[in-house]
């Protein structure tokens, strides 16, 4: 039984930024496969491809890149909620990629590893509450 959950979603907001990783894909066939995979995973779930300006951390160069952004009118967008409600929704949700709580816990782990200077208080508070909820169900 599938129940949609919550994912890290880029929502357009003026004067905001997100830290992330840029992948360079070369070769027509590789590009086609990459976009095909993203189309299946993201676009079919209400996201849209958007070309954005990206500043590379190491060089400071600014390049154009593609990302997927969800509009606030996305049928799968659950909107704002308090942290307890979000944790409960995530604990119960499951999709074709597995339990939603596993996704959020892995996301927090990867943010810590890849961006140690990024103190995403919201994500880490959600992780803390999820770990408590998951432990109580085991």
TrEMBL record:
<dbReference type="GO" id="GO:0005737">
    <property type="term" value="C:cytoplasm"/>
</dbReference>
<dbReference type="Pfam" id="PF04752">
    <property type="entry name" value="ChaC"/>
</dbReference>
<protein>
    <submittedName>
        <fullName>ChaC-like protein</fullName>
    </submittedName>
</protein>
<keyword id="KW-0456">Lyase</keyword>
<dbReference type="GO" id="GO:0006751">
    <property type="term" value="P:glutathione catabolic process"/>
</dbReference>
<dbReference type="GO" id="GO:0061928">
    <property type="term" value="F:glutathione specific gamma-glutamylcyclotransferase activity"/>
</dbReference>
<dbReference type="InterPro" id="IPR006840">
    <property type="entry name" value="ChaC"/>
</dbReference>
């Amino acid at each position: 039984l599938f129940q949609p959950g919550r994912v890290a979603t880029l929502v357009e907001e003026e004067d905001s930024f997100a830290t992330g990783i840029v992948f360079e894909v070369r070769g027509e066939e590789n590009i086609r496969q990459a976009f095909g995979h993203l189309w299946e995973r993201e676009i079919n779930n209400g996201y849209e491809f958007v070309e954005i300006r990206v500043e590379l951390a190491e060089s400071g160069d600014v390049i154009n890149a593609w990302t997927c952004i969800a509009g606030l009118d996305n049928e799968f967008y659950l909107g704002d909620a308090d942290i307890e409600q979000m944790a409960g929704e995530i604990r119960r949700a499951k999709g074709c990629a597995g339990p939603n709580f596993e996704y959020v816990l892995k996301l927090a782990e990867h943010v810590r590893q890849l961006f140690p200077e990024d103190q995403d208080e919201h994500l880490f508070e959600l992780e803390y509450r999820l770990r408590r909820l998951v432990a109580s169900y085991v």
